[in-house]
């Protein structure tokens, strides 16, 4: 069996390692440059590879192709594979059959990383032998090759779900759905929504789907479509006989006739959206039969995720917050919504078809100044130019942070929450977040 891997990054190299171990004839092809550390791994494992090109004769003879999530379906080589009827799948689809571990799959436009990390924290604190993979950390395929976990918590993007055929998580979570990555879905929101719901398409009556019952797109899909999984809703406004909800400043989760309660004030993560993340993670913990005391303790000591509403420093009574992970409007909505002080907002980057109108009311209420950090800021200036008193354009993170310090006064917050992808000026959102933190530390 010939396995061709497109993309020599984390998921690609992990898949190649697993494929090699399972006796496949493996070839890795990357149209860009493969990083040195990944090249070393491939060479050490005796895996053939090429970079900065796709040699068709070495690719179109594959039995199966694993495509890295970053490569669009529209790529020429992918189209040729599909035309030839060769299966093009994701890392998760390739690796899942090689492990008996149960998987908890988490997707959503926002909140999925926090929910994934929090769920992992809850299960690990309870002493379970659990792995963490998907969009985070070491690739799922490589961990399966080492096969040392009984269960995995997987953060799954829509791109990873597009490449599944038979994969099913025992427990699936959809945190929320808002327009994102529409450039990859022919600018059709319904295509993106369907993509997220692929997480439940192979689930059976033995499996569970945990979802945000306040989310319009999710509710509409569930009314029109069927899943066989057992539904477990969570909500900030509704209550359920089975599910999780907030009532009188208390989070309640009723699952399999068992009740769990915890005061919201005791939850380490702040903000309404984080109560949703906590309800989703708690629902998993209850399904995995984790003790109530362990759940309470884990929820009260969880430190949060880097680059997601991360408090950096307070300088001259101005709080600097790194929310570089907010790469779409919905994520920035949550960030602005949780601001309680006048805010200097650093925004901008590569726009994925953003509609800034959703932020209008929050910007009017909370934002005193906007600093645009992107190559093309026209849409942001058009949207908010008449709404805030101060609007500045800068080209570097250092400039952005210095300008923010200059504009801000005692009691203000400086918030980096870009609502855009980072690729115009930075390597990725982590690089953008680190540059922000470095610039703040250098003030």
UniProtKB/TrEMBL annotation:
A Pfam family per the record: Mur_ligase_M
Chemical reaction(s) catalysed: UDP-N-acetyl-alpha-D-muramoyl-L-alanine + D-glutamate + ATP = UDP-N-acetyl-alpha-D-muramoyl-L-alanyl-D-glutamate + ADP + phosphate + H(+)
Listed EC numbers: 6.3.2.9
Listed GO MF terms: ligase activity
Main localization category: cytoplasm
Localisation per UniProt entry: Cytoplasm
Binding of ATP, residues: 108-114
Alphabetically ordered keywords of this record: ATP-binding, Cell cycle, Cell division, Cell shape, Cell wall biogenesis/degradation, Cytoplasm, Ligase, Nucleotide-binding, Peptidoglycan synthesis
Metabolic or biological pathway, per its Swiss-Prot or TrEMBL entry: Cell wall biogenesis; peptidoglycan biosynthesis
First and last residue of the signal peptide: none
Domain Mur ligase central, chain residue ranges per copy: 106-284
Enzyme class: ligase
Domain Mur ligase C-terminal: 307-420
Gene3D superfamilies linked to this entry: Mur ligase, C-terminal domain, Mur-like, catalytic domain, NAD(P)-binding Rossmann-like Domain
HAMAP family named among the record's database cross-references: MurD
Family: Belongs to the MurCDEF family.
Function: Cell wall formation. Catalyzes the addition of glutamate to the nucleotide precursor UDP-N-acetylmuramoyl-L-alanine (UMA).
Name of the protein: UDP-N-acetylmuramoylalanine--D-glutamate ligase
């Amino acid at each position: 069996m010939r396995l061709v891997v497109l993309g020599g990054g984390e998921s690609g190299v992990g898949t190649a390692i697993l494929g090699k171990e399972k006796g496949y004839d493996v070839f890795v092809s990357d149209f860009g440059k493969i990083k040195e550390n990944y090249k070393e791994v491939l060479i050490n494992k005796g895996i053939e590879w090429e970079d900065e090109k796709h040699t068709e004769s070495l690719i179109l003879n594959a039995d199966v192709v694993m495509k890295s999530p970053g490569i669009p379906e529209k790529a020429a080589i992918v189209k040729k594979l599909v035309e030839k009827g060769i299966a093009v799948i994701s890392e998760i689809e390739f690796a899942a059959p090689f492990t008996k571990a149960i998987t908890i799959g988490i997707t959503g436009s926002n909140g999925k990383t926090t929910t994934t990390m929090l769920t992992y924290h809850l299960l690990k604190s309870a002493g379970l032998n659990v792995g963490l993979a998907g969009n985070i950390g070491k690739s799922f395929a490589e961990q399966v090759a080492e096969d040392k976990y009984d269960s995995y918590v997987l953060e799954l993007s829509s791109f990873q779900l597009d490449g599944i055929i038979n994969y099913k998580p025992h427990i699936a979570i959809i945190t929320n759905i808002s327009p994102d990555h529409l450039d990859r879905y022919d600018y059709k929101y319904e295509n993106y929504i369907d993509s997220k719901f692929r997480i439940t398409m192979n689930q059976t009556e033995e499996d569970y789907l945990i979802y945000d019952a306040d989310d319009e797109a999710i509710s509409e899909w569930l009314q029109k479509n069927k899943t066989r999984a057992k539904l477990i809703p969570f909500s900030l406004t509704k209550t359920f006989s089975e599910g999780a909800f907030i009532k009188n400043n208390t989070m309640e989760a009723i699952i399999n006739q068992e009740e769990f309660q915890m005061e919201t004030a005791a939850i380490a993560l702040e903000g309404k959206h984080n109560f949703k993340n906590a309800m989703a993670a708690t629902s998993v913990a209850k399904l995995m039969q984790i003790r109530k005391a362990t759940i309470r303790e884990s929820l009260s000591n969880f430190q949060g995720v880097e680059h997601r509403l991360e408090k950096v420093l307070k300088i001259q009574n101005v709080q600097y917050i790194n929310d570089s992970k907010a790469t779409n409007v919905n994520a920035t909505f949550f960030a602005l919504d949780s601001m309680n002080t006048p805010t200097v907002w650093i925004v901008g980057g590569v726009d994925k078809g953003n509609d800034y109108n959703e932020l209008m009311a929050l910007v009017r209420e909370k934002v005193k100044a906007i600093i645009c950090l992107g190559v093309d800021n026209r849409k942001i200036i058009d949207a908010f130019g008449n709404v805030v008193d101060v609007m500045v354009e800068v080209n570097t993170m250092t400039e952005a942070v210095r300008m923010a310090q200059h504009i801000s006064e005692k009691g203000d917050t400086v918030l980096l929450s870009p609502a855009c992808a980072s690729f115009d000026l930075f390597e990725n959102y982590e690089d953008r977040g680190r540059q922000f933190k470095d610039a703040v530390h250098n003030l």
